[in-house]
Amino acid sequence: MQALYVIMVILLIISFAFDREKTWKSIKRGKNKLMKILPGYLKILVLLSLVLLFSEDFIVEYLGGQNIILGSFLGLIIGSITMMPGFIAYPLAGILLSRGVSYMVVAAFVISLKMVGVLTYPVEKEYMGVKATIYRNTASFAIAAILTLLIGLYYGEVII
Amino acid sequence: MKKNKEQDHRLDYGIFAAFLIFLAVSQLINFDLGMAMGENFLIFARDMILILPPAFIIIGLFEIWVKKETIEKSFGNSSGFKKHIYAILLAATTVGGTFVAFPVANSLYHKGADYSSIFSYITAASLVMIPMSVMEASIIGLEFTLLRIGLSLPLVVISSIILNKIFQQGNYVLPANV
Questions:
Q1: B57 CB near a chain A CB, below 8 Å?
Q2: pLDDT confidence of B20, banded at 50, 70, 90?
Q3: Domain containing residue A127
Q4: What is the distance in angstroms between the Cα of A66 and the nearest Cα belonging to chain B?
């Protein structure tokens, strides 16, 4: 994260050296863009605070079930809906594995968590439009499902 | 139309303010559910406050300085397979994951990137983020992480190429001036 500030400062200095006017214009452009989308980000913040209340318990309780297919399916769904920072998601995945939950179920959850964003819809649709947002997330869900199956096959947890 | 949009936002900010008040009151009266929500809220709010302002200034610099031809050459229709490599490299180094990738993708598009580059970029941004992948490897295992990245990238590229075909046929354009 510090890297982001270092890059910004370096770019600003270079930009300023070449053209003051353009630099101010750039900063203003960035500020205006952020102000336009801010309500979208705030919506996601509120939704996330709510969803995270339930998702951790849900994951620990339901993904550890005996049925690997059902577990993977639930993993895909909950991973798609919720969103977590890595420092919550990965320790949680570690707990699941230490309890004997299969790699396939953990993969379902971890991969869909990254690839599919239901909660990020308010921001994604502003930048990508409704159609592209829906298509991209549908494709991502399909990829997450394929990857889950491949990882299950790799670890020998499911056999076709 | 414009006025409607502004009123919309006022409602959004109103709801958000009410939510903040709810969180604050929860702290005061020790309301468990509200306090737990406050914790979740802070986790994400801190990230957003720290990441979004510098990210958007860099996006602003990008839009003002970078010429359309430059992006067209590397991310445009004529760039061939290379654009996917560029998109994935850019994604691996994007700080903030998809939150930052969405506005960046929109800017790239309006500078001449085609659909397949930006789809590859957005999806890869959450998949191959370097700090996250390092964390994953240390907890779940390096084998798992390599497997996940190795298997997912080809699928992401294939799906982007298919989506590109679909979107090129229609007259779909991404929102401008956002």
A1: yes
A2: very high
A3: 2-154
A4: 20
